[in-house]
Structures are given as C-alpha cells and as structure tokens.
Fold each of these.
Amino acid sequence: MLWFSVWTVLVLATLGGAFLLGRSLWRSSVALLHELSRAADVTAQLAERIDELQEAAGTRDTGPTLFADRAVLQARLDALREAAAGRRAEREQRHVATRLRWQAYWR
C-alpha cells in the first residue's frame, strides 16, 4: 500500500509539472508569434520607407565617364585636387594647434 501511494504522488507530481511546463511553453510560443507578426509589420513599414527614400533620392550623377571630354575630366580632377588641398591645409592647422596645446601642457 505504501508503494502505491508513493507512485501515485510521483505520477501526479509529474503530470502537474508537465502541465505547468506545457502551459509555459504555450504562452511563450503565443508571445513569440505576436512578436513575429509585429516584426513583420515593422519590416513592411521599413521597406515602404526605403522605397520612398530611394524615389526621393533619384539617380546620382557619378561624375564624368571614361568617354567624356578631356577638358571636363581635367577640370573635375583639378577641383578634386583643390578640395583635397583645402582639407589638407585645415588638417595641418588642427595638428599645429594640437601640438601647441600639448607643448603648453607639458612645459
């Protein structure tokens, strides 16, 4: 009689634990499905926004092509070199200012 009651308690406890585990798993899977549907909605909105932005941006001019006039190509190259020289001069000024600050700090 003692073994029967022990096994009955063990089986009922196992069934109760299985029920609680199954309920938890069911709730987690329902929550996952809700989040997946929300993620799909957000992805659709993002795709629409990307399409709008691409339409607004239009096509970009990538500059002169290989078969363009040499004068146009040379003018573009000169403009790029001038812009790079300006950036280089600004960077050198920043470096000089930083060097002076560091020298003042360490003296």
Note: Residues 2-57 form the longest helix (56 residues).
Amino acid sequence: MARIDQTPFEIAISGLTHDGRGVGRRPDPKAPDSAGKAIFVAGALPGERVMAKQTARSRSFDEAVAVQVLQASPDRVDPRCAHFGVCGGCALQHLAEDQQILAKQRVLMENFERIGHVMPERVLPALTDSAWGYRRKGRFSVRRVEKKDKTLVGFRETDPRFVADISRCETVIPAIGDKVAALAALIDGMDGRREIPQVEFIGGDRMDDHDGIALTFRHLAPLSDGDRDKLAAFGREHRFAIFLQPGGIDTVHPLWPADPQLQFSLPDWDLRLKFRPLDFIQVNASLNGRMIQHALDLLEPQPEDRVLDLFAGLGNFTLPLARRVREVVGVEGEAGLVQRARENAAHNGLGNAQFYAADLGKDLSGERWMREGFDRLLLDPPRSGADFVLTQLPLKQFKRIVYVSCHPASLARDAGYLVREKGWKLRAAGVMDMFPHTAHVESIAMFER
C-alpha cells in the first residue's frame, strides 16, 4: 500500500460523525466536478474550516486529524482537560455541552430514520446532569514505559496501542480522578509493576471502613509480600477498598479491608443495592436516578400491574418498580448478578420482586416465567440490542414497553421490528447524557400497542 501523504490540506467541515469527528469532503484534483471523497477529521466541528493531516484511508472514506482551526465554530470551547486530543477517554470536550447532547439526539433520530425506518411521535427533552466528575466505574490501563522510566496509568490514547500519560481525569469522580498520579506512582514503586495491565475502579456509598471506592488490580504473576503491603497501605491512606484479580472474574478477592462491603443508594425509592467490584452498575450515579424516574414515568406502572424487566442486572430498575407494582420479574443472563439481585430484594424487604437467570439470546420457550402473564415490559439490553428476545415474547400481553438503550443503532433496528412488523406505535424517544464529553449515546423509547 502506498504511503499516506501527510501534507496538511484545507477542508470545510459540514457534519459530525457518530463517534464525534468532523465530516468533510476533499475534492479530487483528477475529478474537479465530483463531490469528493468523505473524510472524517478528529478535532473538527461542523461549520469550521481547518487544516488537516490525513492519518488513514479506506475505500469509502479517509481519516484525518485537525492540526489548525482556520475558522472556528461558535460552538467550539476550550477543553478543560490538558490531555484532550491525546487521551481517548473523551471525544467532544471541544464542543459546548448543550451542543453535545443535541448532536447525540441527531444521531438517535438519524438511526431511527436510516435503520428502523420509523420516527417517534414525540421527541423527549434530553436528560442531562453534571458533565464533570461523574464517572464512577471504569478501567484504567497500566503500562511500564522504559523509555520514559515511568509507569503510565490512564485510558487508552486515541491510538489504542498506547496508554495516555495523564496525571488526573476530569470526568472520573474526584475521589479517583484526582488520584491518577498517585496510583501511577504506587504501581511504579512495586516489584510487579510490569505484571499489572489494568486497574478497575468503581464507586458507591461511604462505608465504615472505606469511602465506597474499590480498586481491583489485575496481575499476571503472583505479587510479592512487599507489593501486597504497599497496596494495602495505599488503601488505608486513601480509604479505598483494594481487590486483587490474578485470573478470571471468579478470582477477584479482597486485600484490604478483609471483607469490604460495597453498595450504592437510590434514595428516591429508599433502596440500597449491594454489588461486587467488577459488577455492572450505571456509570453516572446522579443521572441514573433521574433515568430510573424517567423510565417509570414513561412506563406508567399501576399498583395492580405485573411487570417484566429484562436484562435486569442487580435490580437497578426492578427494585424501584417493586415499590410501585404488585409484582415485578427481573431476568438477567449473568448468574452472579441474579444472586445479588435476589439478595438486594431481600435486603430491602421486597418480597414482590422475583429474579431469574436466563440467556436472553437463546431459546426461552422452556422458561417458566415466559408462560406467566405481564402487563408492562421494561428492558435495558447490551449494545447488541434485544431483537432475539423480542421475537420470542408474546408481545400482545403488554400495554406498554419502555426500552432503555446504550446503542442507538440496535434500538432503531428493534423499534423498526416492533412498529413495522408487530404493529406497535413508537410514541416517544429521547437521549440521556450518561457519558458527557464522549460520543456514547444513551437513549430511551416508549411503545404502545
């Protein structure tokens, strides 16, 4: 393959890709009358003229990075983070916050139109909250870089082969985001610094023996006694619960304190949900509470209803629903989460919440809960969506469906199925800014028969 010419060139930006890059067209000097090949330009915004340098090519589009902004968009702002543009954790810090959520709304509507061939009767107001210091769960990569004589801890760079050299993170909750440099120094001083590829973090409520923050250190070789002592001392100093992971997820175990308990609260429903350090919880705690209320408002559960909650996890939606309805059934594919969801129901005194383990991507005809009647359906599937389970459900039993989505393309596909093949109406849909400054689009849709 011929080398890419990296001579900077001028380009006008007309749109924004779904991953937050500017879109323009570069005229072909050999075909001056053609529109030109699409080129995606990192760091550029619609309405701008920039000098860009090409970084990659493919048959249908090329890729580039902006090296100079010649004419700035009025929506351009100065990124708060000094690492923006190198660290791959954020893609949109240079775009005003009110425009970020509008861009995500456009992504959702374009997916409905292009993939689902359906549009909502009503576009819901966007759900937003604090845009900084919100991320309570994530994974830092770790790499010892001999040329720099230091250990790097952070998210991957925009080039994912590299770990970003950061000292703090503006989007992670401050209890962790302000400690990135200290965490890097800790690992750099360990015997096993080359054997630790990642550190997972998760945050919940303050407890008696720690501040609700858990760090899980993945290590590829046994840690020395000295390293274990350093990790425990770091935990005591910062009141972090420290876990070790020498193998798969089932090998995770506490180092300090001896038996740390982790939980987060949903105060509007007087709930406390216990979790383990690698469990899935919603990343943005304050938006999560608003999202639950939003979903329940759209679902309109009645006191005598029986509700089905698919992809239920720890019971994030199931348990608030149990406060409102006669009975709710939560179904989740991961057995460990189902067990903890059952414990959460018991811990909160909820006898009307039942949980079942089932692979929702496989044949469900033998599942007992499938043969029981329901009034309403709530589902919050992974990125792959819920197409297979929707084809198996007796959909006519439901009065209303609320679908929470972390991937607009799969939501649009499934909405198309419900509307065009099963006769449902897409009454309302909108976006929720679960991940400000990233291109991630969280959305919600309500269907009625």
Note: The chain is about 20% helix and 30% strand.
Amino acid sequence: MSLPISTGRIQSTLRRFLDSEASGGLVLMAAAAMALAVANSSLAEAYFDALHFYIGPLSLQHWINDALMAVFFLLVGLEIKREMLDGQLSTWSRRILPGAAAAGGMLAPALIYLAFNAGTPASIRGWAIPTATDIAFALGVLSLFGSRVPASMKIFLAALAIIDDLGAVIVIALFYTSGLNLSALAGAAAVLALLFLINRAGVKTLTLYLAVGVALWVLMFISGIHATLAGVLLALTIPIKLSPGAPEASDAESPLHRLEHLLHRPVAFVIVPVFGFANAGVSLLGTSISSLADPHTLGVAAGLFAGKLLGVLSVVGLLVKLGFAQLPAMANWTQMTGVALLCGIGFTMSLFIGLLAFDDPAVQDKVKIGILLGSAISGVAGSAVLMASRRKTSRP
C-alpha cells in the first residue's frame, strides 16, 4: 500500500517540518565540519577546555547534552504524538511500511555491530549506536535533490525516522539507565501524573506544562534515568486538537501544534547544531588506517552503512513482494535504495547513544570516528544512487 499524502496536511505542519528539518540538516553539517576542523587545529585545547568548564553543578558539555537536548527530545515527543494521533502515522495502513522499515533498520545494524564486537563483552554495550537515523541530516541531504525526488519519499523518510526516534527513546530508557534513585523516580512519577491530570482538566496554558516539566526534568536527572527523556514524557501530556480528514488544527486551538511550531526553528538551527559542534569534535591526530580497524569503529561504521541499507531495503522489498505494501507514490526502487542508504546517516542520536554507552573518552572517540565515517559513506553513496536515479528517469 502506498503512503497516502493528504494535500491539506502537506501544506501545514508536515511541510514546515520537512522544510525546517532539511534546512537544519544543512546547518548541522556545517557545525559538524567546524567541530572537526577546530578539534584538529591550534584551537583544540581551548575547545576541549571550554566543553569541560563547569557552570554550577554541570560542565558546559553536560548542560548541552542533558538540558538543551531535553528540548530536542521534547520536540521529538511532540512529533511522534502528532503523527501517531493526527498525521501520516495515524492509521495502521500508513504505519506498516515506514514502521517495518524502521524496525529492520534498527535490527540489522545492531547485529552487524555485535558481529564485530562479539569477542569483547565490554564493547557489546554499544550495540544501539548504529541503529539511529538522523532525521535532520538525512532530510538535509535529500533536500539537495529538490523536486527530483518524489514528495512521498521525503514523507516516507520522515515517518521512518520519527518511528526510529521512538525506538531510540525506548532503547535509552530500557538499556542505558542504571543506579536508580527510587525516591526521585517516585517524585517524577507523581509530577508526570500531575501533568496528565492537568491535561484531563482541559488546561491549555503551555507555560504551566513547561514549568511543571522543569520539575520533571530535575527529578528525572536525580533519579538516574537520563534526564532528556523528561522531554518525551512532557510531550505526551501536551494537549492536541485532533482534526481527522481535514487540515491540521490551528495553533490557537491546539497547544501541541503551537509548541511544536515554536520549537522547530530553535531546535533545528540552534540546539542540534550546538550539540553537533560540542560532540563531533574528535582529534584525528595519530589516526591511521590500522586504527580504523578497531571493532568499535568498524562495528558502528558498517552498522550504519551496510546495516541500514540491508535492514530497510530487505523489509520494504519483502512487504512489497508479499503484497502488504506498495512503494511510495511516484517512487522507484533506485530511489528507495538511495533513501535506504541515507538512513545510514546516524549523526545526532548515534552520538547521543554513544556517550551513554561508554564513559572512556578513548572509546568515545573511536565511536565518533565510526559514526562520522559511516554517516559520510552513507550520505555520499545515497546521493550517488539518487543522482543515478535522476539521470535514469530523465531519459526519453
């Protein structure tokens, strides 16, 4: 079954989402390149010292990764809730193709990473690193092809990445949480219950939700569960006005839409690029071809490039062959292959999971090199395939 396209909705939130994510992806590319350049220049010492400078109880890097990224996860949660309840993922027929492709695109990279690191128990903890797709980066590359790629493929990629983000959130909650403070966790549960009660009471004042959300973040931080997940939980409590079969509700009617629109640009153009700049910087001095053969680096790079391609494309091919789904409208298999390759761009969420998986800075650097390598190869290969598709379809 092809992915449906609702004209009214494409002109509203989803269109703005695609545009801002694509443009933000280009800014993120620039931020990542700048971080690499600075980390390998005479400014490297100042760069790393600044990241480890303490502001109150946390270093600058921790404020970015724990506090700023909570806002990123808030937006992720809002997007997941909107799409599941009132968007392109609101019915099972719409969810089956991107949902199954996302599942395949998480399983295959994890298996490939484990194959490279099976002999080292301590390294297995990084299995989830190559399972993520960076929606901003991938859509940023796809946007370079403009109308030469069908809108349905952009929607498919966005839907797949949103479901992928949901999977990443679940993985972080289940596998990267330790040393729980039960008192703080109980407090967080009470605050979350309060937020749901406020929602049930029909309150639509965003400032109240956000103020209580700050308390939720603090308690989550103390509890041992990664504080950024407070953003996702807060998003689940924000009221949304459903408008099935019609253009999406206006910002005045739907607090969720209003908050989503307020956050899109700051997250896409400030928060994610700042995170990328703070975490993509890795010194390449002393890096050799032999050092690239480290299991962490190879497992992540191969997981992103080969794993995403195999996982996404094989699942889509199986569903289409069995008649459970059709390719997105106006798309062909070459374009699907190109998009499957772009799914291997796992920058933001992969970096985030990598920092949770390993505490050793040396291992973190190996993981970062794998992420950068796998993402770069996936982006270049995906672009080449899409270019070939354009030439093929343009022939008379």
Note: The chain has 15 helices and two strands.
